[in-house]
Amino acid sequence: MQRVLNHLEEWLIAFLMGAATLLIFIAVVHRYLAGAPIPVVQDYLLKFDLSWAQELCIYMFIWMAKFGAAYGVRTGIHVGVDVLINRLPPTLHKTYIFVGMGAGALFTAVVGTLGASFTWDMAHTSNTTPDLELPKWIVFLCIPIGSYLMCFRFLQVAWYFGRTGELPKHDVAHVEGIDETPDINPYNMQDNLHPAPMTPGAPR
Fold first, then answer.
1. How much is the pTM?
2. What is the b/e burial string over 177-192, where b = at least 16 CB atoms within 10 angstroms of the residue's CB?
3. CB-facing half-sphere around the CA of 166: CA atoms within 13 A
4. Which of its termini does the chain have fewer beta carbons within 10 Å around, N or C?
């Protein structure tokens, strides 16, 4: 179940990012080609109305940001200043980590609850978006869903830290799916193609 949720989160973020990028690219190309004085192409493109594309892209990026924030908690890619905390004794260090995770879970739970209440009230109105004319509660639904997912991730990281004493860390140099190359010291290679060490008695 946990693996399914992780993959669903990643696939949703990737889909929203890719679809929004593709849609805005198509809208920009359509706008410039439709304004070009090309008789057949211009007449054909003017039949398509893509004025809603920008609004949809904004909503897609908002949803992506909410799910991306939860993904960031799970993978440890959020920026944090831990210079002082790392200098604390182990007991206090662990306590402060739990306090920080608890505060994050509490904050996101409050935001999710308020967002759910706001979305519920919005669902009982006739408010719609300007271009797509979607019910606004669908757009605002990302607030409770994303916030509650982020709250769950805070609790998940805190539970994992309590068991292992480790926090998720993101290595910016690591590419998933590619094995790390071993650290090769060229001075220790026994061949005639690399420089040899200059220390006395070292093999040449």
1. 0.78
2. eeeeeeeeeeeeeeee
3. 5
4. N
